[in-house]
């Protein structure tokens, strides 16, 4: 949550608009701690882990409100203490999101519409979070020693009945600090498929693990914090009685993890490949993963082939003077300060 999410999309999840396929990909916050605390506070004696361990029943438990209040607080801390301090990428500017609205009943049972943009400042809603110590904020993750395990022969797609290790190429290495801050290196675990949403599913995503064994017996299960990119944790959505219902169809999703700080931390920033381990932790016998890649950051790295001595990246073409060695002719711009004519 601290180092793997330098952008709102990597913290809160991908945009989800009307007409999109469901499950575009949650952020790490939704997986851990949100999803795992749901399971932890669910009742294993109940058939569907009620109340907290299943979506349909979770809000029936008073702990739900404490848990979600704390998830909101994590977001607040991320915005104000982690991202604001670096002055970048703290908020989502998209009006589709800012103007999205929800209907609620107020204390007088009147239906009121609340927009997302009106709910972003706790002070405006007349509450503040208690000022408590945050010793974890500056903690450094522990590192493992030893040689990183090799990739498996099989590769992906694969079922996560046991640990799967794949070699992943990094499009760019040894980027400058400024580049890393502007454009995060994103590990994308793609084509995650679960036959339904009936059971809790969790697997860990570990980079250059020094573990030697399989899922249960090796060191992967206890991978050092520095090597962990994050986890995928899917909270069940349906009750078993619904198994035959049409809603019990396959779930297909994607997970994204920022790994810029991670590769620095484990000394792998110069490596052109990393080995990514997917370590099953719960309900993974029927989970398949399609592939793993590293996302090239946005349009800055888009490239076009031209008849030139090089194929230039867009990022190499933004400064006309320094990079492209031309300037625009300095001509008069009488329209620059013109006032529009008012027709009466
Ligand atoms: Cu929840």
What tags apply to this protein structure?
alpha+beta; globular; four-stranded antiparallel β-sheet; about 350 residues; about 20% strand; binds copper (II) ion; about 15% helix
Structural notes for this entry:
- It is a single chain.
- By secondary structure, the protein is α+β, with helices and mostly antiparallel strands.
- It is built from seven helices and eleven strands.
- The chain has one domain (8-299).
- It has a four-stranded antiparallel sheet.
- Helix 2 runs antiparallel to helix 4 (63-83).
- The protein is globular and about 80 Å long.
- It has helices at 8-12, 28-41, 55-58, 63-83, 95-98, 177-182, 260-265, and strands spanning 101-105, 111-115, 158-159, 164-169, 186-194, 201-207, 228-234, 251-258, 273-282, 288-289, 291-295.
- Strand 1 and strand 2 form a beta hairpin.
- The site of copper (II) ion (CU) has 4 residues, from helix 2.
């Amino acid at each position: 949550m601290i180092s793997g999410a330098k952008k709102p999309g990597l913290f809160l999840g991908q945009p989800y608009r009307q007409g999109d396929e469901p499950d575009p990909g949650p952020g790490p916050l939704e997986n851990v701690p949100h999803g795992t605390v749901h399971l932890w506070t669910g009742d294993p004696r109940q058939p569907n882990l009620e109340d907290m361990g299943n979506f349909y029943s979770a809000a029936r438990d008073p702990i739900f409100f404490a848990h979600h209040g704390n998830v909101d607080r994590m977001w607040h801390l991320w915005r104000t203490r982690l991202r604001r301090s670096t002055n970048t990428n703290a908020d989502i500017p998209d009006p589709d999101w800012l103007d999205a609205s929800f209907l609620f009943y107020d204390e007088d049972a009147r239906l009121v519409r609340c927009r997302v943009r009106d709910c972003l400042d706790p002070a405006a809603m007349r509450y503040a979070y208690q000022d408590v110590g945050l010793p974890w904020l500056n903690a450094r993750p522990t590192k493992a020693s030893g040689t990183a395990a090799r990739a498996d022969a099989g590769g992906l797609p694969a079922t996560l009945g046991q640990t799967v290790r794949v070699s992943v190429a990094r499009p760019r290495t040894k980027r400058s600090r400024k580049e890393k801050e502007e454009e995060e290196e994103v590990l994308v675990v793609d084509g995650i498929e679960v036959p339904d949403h009936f059971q809790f599913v969790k697997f860990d995503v570990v980079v250059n693990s020094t573990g030697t064994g399989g899922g249960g017996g090796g060191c992967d299960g206890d991978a050092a914090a520095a090597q962990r990119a994050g986890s995928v944790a899917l909270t069940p959505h349906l009750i078993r009685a619904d198994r035959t219902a049409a809603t019990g169809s396959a779930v297909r999703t994607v997970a994204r993890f920022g790994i810029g700080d991670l590769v620095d931390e484990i000394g792998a920033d110069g490596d052109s490949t990393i080995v990514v381990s997917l370590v099953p932790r719960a309900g993974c016998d029927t989970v398949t993963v399609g592939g793993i890649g590293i996302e090239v950051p946005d349009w800055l790295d888009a490239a076009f082939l031209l008849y030139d001595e090089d194929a230039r990246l867009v990022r190499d073409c933004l400064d006309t003077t320094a990079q492209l060695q031309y300037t625009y002719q300095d001509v008069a711009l009488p329209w620059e300060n013109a006032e529009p004519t008012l027709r009466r």
